[in-house]
Design goal:
With 370 residues, the protein is of the alpha+beta class. The chain has a six-stranded mixed beta sheet with strand order 1-5-6-4-3-2, sandwiched between helices. It has a two-stranded antiparallel ribbon with strand order 7-10. A hairpin with a 5-residue loop joins strand 8 and strand 9.
């Protein structure tokens, strides 16, 4: 069995320093190329006043091109060798993929040591900033907008998982990678960690990359990647959208529980609505409860128990009765290196090795088969 990863080289080959010419040769011909000077002018020399975000491998600036349109310009850190791979992966993954819930790549710059991506500009920045950020950056989102954001993200993921060929697993679904246009239509961005997933394989064994609080346990513990990892992350995202609380902080109750862990406890007590964002003064209680229960279906400890994204779209957008008897405790990975949520024999032993995640300073444990 084989899998495809644009921008990656076989491990057996020794990698040499990437020149601008070799990088440019790997970029698809259909992608627009901008000069560094064009983008420098567009951003007023990459002025701090135009900075609108920071990703794992660089800074994002707001810019205005010479012919008028505003764009988001992501300037990769020149010293990041890992960023080079993500740069090519992102271009080759989404250059010709179009969907209303995916951020559109406009072009790139490969000049000297500069690696820059140019995207459509989205007026309301990221979901993270709008909902989970500092008070001065937050936007008041009513339930109608929040539910539409959930459904839009689900549709974008369903498109990636089920309609693109080969299928695409994003690997880093989180609030900061969801951007909002002027009408609060959500768009999935940052495909630097994405993997292409052919039909003829069951999973990819890969290095672990992603963000604390969103990682599916089977992926965090053993590097076993399937589209179900994105579905798990999306379940966490639903809870964040409903509660306006970050999943990456353990700050619930006396025991400092994770958001998912605390939500399940409240569900078992019949008090799940206690988690709803207090700023949501009016909302349809049954619908909000249904969304939170869909989050539990998405975060089931056993990946095979999670629904597909097309099923999730139906569960969110149609007033259907969920079979809650099928729900078991969700699984979650704890910073201490533990796994919770379902019975497992994967306990710590001497047969373990630690791996550092790519985008957060956290060491996690991978259990090797005996």
């Amino acid at each position: 069995m084989s899998w495809i990863c644009f921008g990656c080289k076989p491990e057996k080959q020794k990698q040499t320093p990437d020149s601008a010419q070799s990088i440019a040769g790997q970029v698809l011909e259909g992608v627009a190329h901008f000069s560094y000077n064009e983008l420098r002018i567009a951003t007023n020399n990459f002025s701090v006043s135009n900075k609108i975000g920071r990703g794992g491998f660089g800074i994002v600036y707001k810019g205005t091109l010479r012919n008028g349109p505003q764009v988001a310009i992501k300037k990769l850190a020149a010293a990041s060798k890992q960023g080079q791979r993500e740069f090519l992966t992102e271009i080759n993954t989404i250059a010709h993929v179009r969907h209303r819930n995916l951020v559109q790549l406009i072009g790139c710059c490969v000049e000297g040591t500069n690696r820059i991506l140019v995207y459509e500009y989205l007026e309301n920045n990221s979901l993270d900033r709008a909902l989970l950020g500092r008070k001065e950056t937050r936007i008041r989102l009513d339930w109608e907008k929040r539910s539409a954001i959930c459904v839009g993200i689900a549709k974008g993921l369903a498109f990636l998982h089920e309609e693109t060929v080969p299928h695409i697993v994003h690997r880093d679904i989180k609030a900061s990678n969801i951007l909002l246009d002027e009408s609060f239509n959500p768009k999935i961005g940052d495909f630097g960690l994405a993997k292409l997933f052919p039909d003829d394989i069951t999973h990819i064994s890969t290095r672990i990359a992603g963000t604390t609080g969103y990682l599916a346990p089977e992926y965090a513990m053993a590097g076993q990647l399937t589209p179900k990892a994105d579905i798990y992350s999306f379940g966490i995202l639903i809870l964040e959208i409903v509660t306006a609380r970050s999943s990456s902080k353990a700050d619930w109750g006396e025991q400092q529980k994770l958001l998912l862990e605390w939500a399940w406890e409240l569900h078992e007590r019949g008090s799940l609505l206690e988690l709803v964002d207090p700023d949501l003064e009016e909302y349809p209680k049954e619908e909000v409860l249904r969304y939170m229960k869909v989050a539990f279906f998405c975060t089931q400890a056993a990946s095979q128990r999670r629904p597909s994204m097309s099923q999730v779209v139906d569960m969110l957008s149609k007033n259907i009765k969920l079979n809650e008897k099928q729900l078991t405790a969700p699984g979650f990975f704890q910073d201490s290196g533990g796994f919770s949520g379902a019975p497992t024999s994967s306990k710590k032993s001497s047969n373990e090795s630690s791996y550092q995640m790519s985008s957060v300073p956290l060491t996690i444990t991978q259990v090797k088969p005996r």
